[in-house]
């Protein structure tokens, strides 16, 4: 509360971005958690709420006769253009929001004050809703080829890895520990996805510390063990998701990539996905295009092209397809890494999983996948999403790109996904909102230290409770396009600009009638009709039965019983 | 002329057909006067029947004695025929070339085509101007149907009957016609029932460099204004282009002579620019490289989406003037047969729910395109693959259909027809067994006796099975004006036409079927529940015993 210099400003104008003449006048309130704009117009009283944690940046423009403009850019791509009557007030609002939107400690995050009124038992159930071990069991693990390792129980081998990890049956703790010493941040090769059908696996790690010539026997044994865990295959792929030049540059710093000569039976492959800095700048450029006031078609298309965004999305999807095909079609295991193995690696492994396994295309499956490949494997959510004041160079929309890849796939396979676009957008929003504890911190160890399970709530059970909002009416699990491996086209024209996310708040740009909502409503009605039909049939049966009995007894009575 | 003279080799065996996303077919290739046919002579294999008039261009390739002909069609499909024997291949190629570039209209397939279906309603009589006028008469008595053009002498590209203000006599019309490009004097295009405002269209005024004026023309258009009201003139050209037109005898309405009118200039491109745009767009879509930058820059460089945006923006402007400002509008460009019609027809889609039905849309195409004198034969003579130097070709009608598709995408429940109707119209405008899109204007169609000698596309469309195929399962009548968004983010590439042959549409087709299934199943259940309800009610009333339980 001490950060709020001014709790309330009157006569503030909220401009409509597309047609600035259509502005609204109202009162601006600053609370501990939200900025609230309440429209004054009699009878309307529409309210706009913006969570402080969603504020990405602010621009205070030069004051004019009409007031002092303050533009707020949000992490969910909402842009609010306020005009505050007096410079002084604008200054105070600006400073307050700057502080409020950039917590200095975890304790200030919204998830610790968000209280949906549930007791401790319910909270425990919320957090138990997703169980990663159950997902490994679903894959058929542990089995004779893969085992659960306790080597990282206290995060001693790798402090950014989860405690529970699956490793090849033949990988002994000394091999694991030895391998981890040869990998950035101790992130040794471990299992991400296992195909029950053909034993091929997707493994992930960070880059090896190979420099120009270093090698590590245990690391070589570790890869050998992974290869052996796929008995039908005589080689495996090692995929470095970085552009070759970046990987070579890393060698000078004692890092780098695997030398095919030192590892037996690996096929090494570079896949040029750019680094977090390129992705951050790319999204920034694309957002600038989205925010142009009335762009021409050329402005838009040129801007979209020069942002490079769709090119990067295509690169991630291409990489996912390469891995998914290796697993499903060749039956070959793949080890994926980038530098630290928590950005590109997370993207590529999870995209491959979505392509491979219909389970990850269900509501629960996608949650499990994000929980596994992103949350548990230490994607640095707090750094990448700028949850609190920190190094701006650490911020990058890596998870956005994953969600967008899923969306692009949904556009190509409208019947293959159980969830709808709204589901992806809601997840996106809450990754940034800090309302739930799921994405706070940078890895499992940090989350346990913060006591998030005890002190905050889980998004997943909230989404599950409201699943009706997130269902795709066209989903048909028995449909051929929903089965097995997806083989999407990656011709450039198959990639579309995701208006639903990046221009989400520009309502005027979206279709005025939603086919999906229409179909959902029909399905709901159909369900009611089915119930009515069943009950009518029942009544009908009862009635005709009754009528028959009555008639029968009447006849009998009329005739009179003999005797 | 006998077609046989042009067919050097009527039949070749062992020809292999390659089509995108379909298995190759080996069979016999036959050339007839109007078709290229490939048949495997086996059951269960689809035969290829291709109208020669659908062929835009061909390419020949030889590897040893195996020749290949790559056939590029006006509907943008590209197929390949592998023909054994160099001589056969050359013969087939030159025959196709000759047959697909016949100059004489009367040799076109529609004159030879005999319908294999029962004509329920003759489409040639479905949308007569006098019937359309009856609807107008029921709303207003301020207009009359003039026969001034009954012998096409006043305006060769107008139909014999046109709607004009009641108080303007035929002499005035004749004089006004001399002041407008190609005699296209202002006529009624649309009457907005809600507020009685109108949209008119015309050719450009022939003011020339010395500012000629024409009292009759002024009188004619002023007659459409209510006392004290102002109207809008929407000139589809930029002010610069309109200025330049003066040097060639054209021009625009000056403020001094038309004080009751406010003129707005927009920037819809002329036809040759549009043709180039189509060629570039299709080239971009067929580009095999997998580079995202290349695709986006080629898409941008084609300017196709820019044209879509500009046309829609202008149509929205016209609709806004009428519906929001409560003003009447006159639309023209240069000739008044291209951009003008795009604007007036799209404005009607926006304003008038009737135009969003299957039948209403046919009526719109008849009124605003065919009868209004859009030169289909010239514009649709060649499509995106043509090698010959473009003459009058331009995808003006295709752009209109694309704009309708954009609105349909934004209001998916407000149209009675589905995308497939728009695709069908695109196909038939370029190559067809029906006579509807032959010729450039009503006068030409009358001279060719099309109604007597050919079948109308509408005769085929307006049959129950076809109507069902073309109808939109999501349709729920929407009586409102529908305002599309013209933001670049809202305008999409029309995949159903431009990527139709480049990507498999299986998953999207399945999704469509699933959508139909959901809706049909719901209807089926509704019927069942209703009939059960009736049965129950009947049981209860019929059986007196049940009434006293």
UniProtKB/TrEMBL annotation, chain A:
Annotated signal peptide: none
Entry binding sites for substrate: 275-276, 338-344
Domain called Myotubularin phosphatase: residue spans: 126-502
Active site: 338
PROSITE patterns, alphabetized: PPASE_MYOTUBULARIN (PS51339), TYR_PHOSPHATASE_1 (PS00383), TYR_PHOSPHATASE_2 (PS50056)
Subcellular location field: Cytoplasm; Endomembrane system
Domain of life: Eukaryota
Coiled coil residues, start to end: 512-539
Record protein name field: Myotubularin related protein 7a
Gene that encodes it: MTMR7
UniProtKB/TrEMBL annotation, chain B:
Pfam families assigned to the protein according to its UniProt record, in alphabetical order: Myotub-related (PF06602), PH-GRAM_MTMR6-like (PF21098)
InterPro entries xref list: Myotubularin, Myotubularin-like_Pase_dom, PH-GRAM_MTMR6-9, PH-like_dom_sf, Prot-tyrosine_phosphatase-like
Keywords: Acetylation, Cell membrane, Cell projection, Coiled coil, Cytoplasm, Endoplasmic reticulum, Membrane
Protein name stated in the entry: Myotubularin-related protein 9
Primary location recorded for the protein, binned into one broad class: membrane
Family listed: Belongs to the protein-tyrosine phosphatase family. Non-receptor class myotubularin subfamily.
Myotubularin phosphatase domain ranges (all copies): 123-498
Record's keyword annotation contains Membrane: yes
Subcellular location: Cell projection, Ruffle membrane; Cytoplasm, Perinuclear region; Endoplasmic reticulum
A molecular function (GO) term: protein phosphatase binding
Origin superkingdom: Eukaryota
């Amino acid at each position: 509360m001490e950060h709020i210099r001014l709790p309330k400003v009157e006569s503030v104008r909220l401009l409509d971005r597309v047609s600035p003449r259509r502005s609204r006048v109202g009162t601006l309130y600053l609370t501990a958690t939200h900025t609230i704009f309440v429209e004054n117009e009699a009878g309307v009283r529409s309210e706009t709420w913006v969570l402080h944690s969603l504020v990405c940046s602010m621009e205070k423009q030069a004051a004019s006769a009409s007031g002092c403009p303050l533009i707020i850019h949000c992490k969910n791509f909402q842009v609010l253009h306020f005009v505050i009557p007096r410079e002084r007030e604008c200054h105070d609002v600006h400073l307050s929001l700057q502080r409020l939107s950039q917590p200095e400690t975890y304790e200030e995050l919204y998830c610790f004050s968000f209280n949906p009124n549930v007791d401790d038992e319910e909270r425990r159930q919320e957090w138990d809703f997703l169980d990663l071990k159950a997902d490994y069991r679903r894959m058929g693990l542990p089995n004779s080829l893969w085992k659960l390792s306790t080597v990282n129980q206290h995060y001693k081998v790798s402090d950014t890895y989860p405690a529970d990890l699956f490793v090849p049956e033949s990988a002994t703790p000394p091999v694991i520990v030895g391998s981890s010493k040869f990998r950035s941040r101790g992130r040794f090769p471990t299992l991400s996805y296992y195909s029950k059908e053909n034993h091929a696996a997707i493994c992930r790690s960070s880059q090896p510390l190979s420099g120009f010539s270093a090698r590590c026997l245990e690391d070589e044994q570790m890869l050998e063990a992974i290869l052996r865990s796929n008995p039908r295959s005589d080689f495996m792929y090692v995929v470095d998701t970085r552009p070759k030049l970046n990987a070579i540059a890393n060698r000078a710093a004692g890092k780098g990539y695997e030398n095919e000569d030192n590892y037996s039976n690996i096929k090494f492959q570079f896949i040029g996905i750019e680094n977090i800095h390129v992705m951050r700048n790319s999204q920034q450029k694309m957002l600038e295009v989205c925010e142009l006031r009335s762009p021409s078609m050329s402005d838009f298309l040129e801007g979209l092209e020069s942002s490079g965004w769709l090119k990067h999305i295509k690169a991630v999807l291409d990489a996912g397809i390469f891995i998914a095909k290796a697993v499903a079609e060749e039956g070959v295991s793949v080890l994926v890494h980038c530098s630290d193995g928590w950005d590109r690696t997370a993207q590529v492994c999870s995209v491959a999983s979505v392509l491979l396994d219909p389970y990850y295309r269900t509501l629960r499956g996608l949650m499990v996948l994000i929980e596994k490949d992103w949350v548990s494997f230490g994607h640095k959510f707090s750094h990448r999403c700028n949850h609190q004041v920190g190094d701006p160079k650490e911020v990058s929309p890596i998870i956005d790109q994953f969600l967008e890849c899923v969306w692009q796939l949904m556009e190509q396979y409208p019947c293959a996904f159980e969830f709808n676009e709204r589901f992806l957008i809601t997840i996106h929003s809450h990754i940034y909102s800090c309302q739930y504890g799921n994405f706070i911190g940078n890895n499992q160890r940090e989350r346990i230290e913060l006591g998030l399970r005890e002190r905050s709530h889980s998004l997943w059970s909230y989404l599950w409770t409201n699943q009706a909002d997130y269902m795709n009416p066209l989903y048909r699990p028995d449909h051929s396009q929903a089965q097995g491996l997806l083989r999407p086209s990656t011709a450039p024209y198959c990639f579309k600009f995701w208006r639903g996310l990046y221009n989400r708040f520009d309502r005027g740009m979206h279709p005025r009638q939603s086919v999906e909502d229409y179909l959902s409503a029909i399905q709901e009605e159909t369900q009611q009709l089915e119930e009515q039909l069943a009950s009518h049939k029942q009544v009908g049966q009862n009635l005709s039965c009754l009528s028959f009995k009555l008639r029968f007894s009447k006849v009998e009575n009329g005739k009179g019983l003999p005797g | 002329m006998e077609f046989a003279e042009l067919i050097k080799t009527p039949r070749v065996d062992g020809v292999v057909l390659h089509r995108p996303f379909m298995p190759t077919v080996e069979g016999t290739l036959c050339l007839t006067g109007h078709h290229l046919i490939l048949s495997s002579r086996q059951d269960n294999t689809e035969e290829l029947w291709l109208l020669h008039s659908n062929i835009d261009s061909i390419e020949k390739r030889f590897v040893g004695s195996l020749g290949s002909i790559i056939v590029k069609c006006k509907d943008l499909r590209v197929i390949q025929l592998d023909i054994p024997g160099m001589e056969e291949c050359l013969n087939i190629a030159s025959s196709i070339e000759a047959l697909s570039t016949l100059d004489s209209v009367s040799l076109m397939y529609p004159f030879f085509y005999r319908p294999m279906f029962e004509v329920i309603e003759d489409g040639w009589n479905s949308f007569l101007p006098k019937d359309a006028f009856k609807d107008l008469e029921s709303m207003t008595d301020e207009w009359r149907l003039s026969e001034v053009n009954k012998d096409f002498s006043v305006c060769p590209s107008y139909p014999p009957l046109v709607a004009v203000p009641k108080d303007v006599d035929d002499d005035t019309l004749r004089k006004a016609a001399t002041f407008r490009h190609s005699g296209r004097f202002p006529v009624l295009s649309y009457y907005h029932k809600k507020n009685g405002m109108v949209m008119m269209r015309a050719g450009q005024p022939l003011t020339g460099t010395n500012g000629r004026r024409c009292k009759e023309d002024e009188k004619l258009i002023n007659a459409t204004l209510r006392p004290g009201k102002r109207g809008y003139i929407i000139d589809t050209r930029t002010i610069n282009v309109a200025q330049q037109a003066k040097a060639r005898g054209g021009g625009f309405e000056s403020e001094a002579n038309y004080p009751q009118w406010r003129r707005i200039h927009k920037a819809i491109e002329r036809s040759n620019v549009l043709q180039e745009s189509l060629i570039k767009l299709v080239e971009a879509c067929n580009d095999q490289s997998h580079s995202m930058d290349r695709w986006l820059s080629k898409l941008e460089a084609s300017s196709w989406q820019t044209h879509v945006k500009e046309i829609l923006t202008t149509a929205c402007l016209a609709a806004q003037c009428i519906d929001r400002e409560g003003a009447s509008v006159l639309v023209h460009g240069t000739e008044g047969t291209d951009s003008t019609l795009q604007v007036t027809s799209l404005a009607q889609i926006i304003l008038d729910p009737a135009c969003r039905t299957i039948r209403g849309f046919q009526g719109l195409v008849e009124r605003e395109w065919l009868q209004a004198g859009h030169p289909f034969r010239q514009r649709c003579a060649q499509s995106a693959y043509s090698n010959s130097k473009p003459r009058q070709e331009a995808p003006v009608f295709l752009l209109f259909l694309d704009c309708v598709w954009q609105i349909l995408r934004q209001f998916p429940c407000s149209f009675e027809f589905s995308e497939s109707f728009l695709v069908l119209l695109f196909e038939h405008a370029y190559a067809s067994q029906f006579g509807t899109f032959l010729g450039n204007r009503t006068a030409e169609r009358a001279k060719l006796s099309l109604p007597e000698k050919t079948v109308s596309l509408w005769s085929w469309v307006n049959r129950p099975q076809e109507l069902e195929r073309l109808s939109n399962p999501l349709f729920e009548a929407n009586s409102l004006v529908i305002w599309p968004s013209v933001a670049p983010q809202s305008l999409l590439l029309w995949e159903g036409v431009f990527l139709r042959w480049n990507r498999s549409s299986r998953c999207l087709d399945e999704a469509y079927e699933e959508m139909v299934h959901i809706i049909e199943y719901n209807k089926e259940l509704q019927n069942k529940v209703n009939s059960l309800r009736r049965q129950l009610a009947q049981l209860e009333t019929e059986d007196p015993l049940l009434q006293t339980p």
